[in-house]
Amino acid sequence: MLSVGITSADWMHMGDELALLERAGADYVHVDVMDGCFCPQLTLGPPVIGALKTGLRKDVHLMIEEPLEKVRAYVDAGADVLTFHVESTSHPHRVLQSLAVALGPGLTRGVALNPGTPVSAVEPLVEEAELVLVLAVNPGWGGQGFLPGTERRLEQAREIIERSGRKVMLGVDGGITRDNVGAVARMGVDLIVTGSAVFDGGDVIANLQAIRATVAAVN
Fold it and tell me: Of 91, 19, 83, 28, which is closest to residue 53 (Cα–Cα)?
C-alpha cells in the first residue's frame, strides 16, 4: 500500500491535490505532524487535519513530544492511522492503551522508530500496535537519502512481528524515490510512505501511477 505525504503538495490548491491523489489510486494521505521540539520543523495540528476533505484514509504521523494527552484530538480530527514515536515518550505502552480507549472506527495504532533507535524497542509494544513504521531518514526535513541500514532494520522488525503471532503491518518512511521504490518494495513492507516522489515534476497522477505500477510488479 502507498501512503502519500502531503508536506510537498501545493497547499494553495490542496483540494485539487487531494483529488489528484484519489484519481491516481493512493491508499492513504500521509500527514506529518511536527511540533518544532521533537524534530526541527513545525507543521500543523488537528484543526488542519480535520479540514482536509478527502475520501482517502488519513494516515497521521505524530512527530511530537509527549503525545499521551494529545492523541485523542487527532482521532477526533479523523485519523484512520495514528502513529507516534517510541522515542517521544517514557510510556509508549500507555499511549497505545489511550488510543484503544479513544478508538475510532477502524483506527490503526502505529509506533515509529527513528534510525538511531534499536528495533528491539518495539518488541514490548507489538501486542498493542497494528503498525510498525521504520524511518529510513532522520525526521524533520526533506531531501535525505534512504539510509542503507534500513533493510536490515526492516528484517529485524519483521522478525519481531512474526514472533508476536499478530497481524501487524510493517511500513517504511523517508527517502523513497521513483528510482528506489521497487527495491524498497522488495524489502517486504506492507506500507510505503512517499511524498516528494509524487509531487516533484508536477504530474501527480503520472508519478503516483508509475510508483504504483513499480510496486505492483514486485508484489
Answer: 19
Instruction: Write down the catalytic residue from 10, 32, 59, 200.
Output: 32
d(CA 119, CA 160): 9
Give the pLDDT band of residue 105 (cuts 50, 70, 90). Answer: low
Is position 203 annotated as part of the catalytic site?
no
Domain boundaries, the chain: 2-218
Residue where the block lists cell 505502552:
93
CA angle, residues 167, 102, 55, in degrees to nearest 5: 70
CB 68 within 8 A of CB 88: no
pLDDT tens by residue, 107-137: 999 999 999 999 999 999 999 999 999 999 9
**Which among 173, 190, 200, 203 is annotated as catalytic?**
173
Q: Is 32 a catalytic residue?
A: yes
Q: Give this prediction's pTM.
A: 0.95
Q: What is the DSSP secondary structure assignment for residue 147, as one 8-state letter?
A: P
- The CATH fold assigned to 2-218 is TIM Barrel (3.20.20)
**Which of 69, 71, 110, 66 is CA-nearest to residue 89?**
66
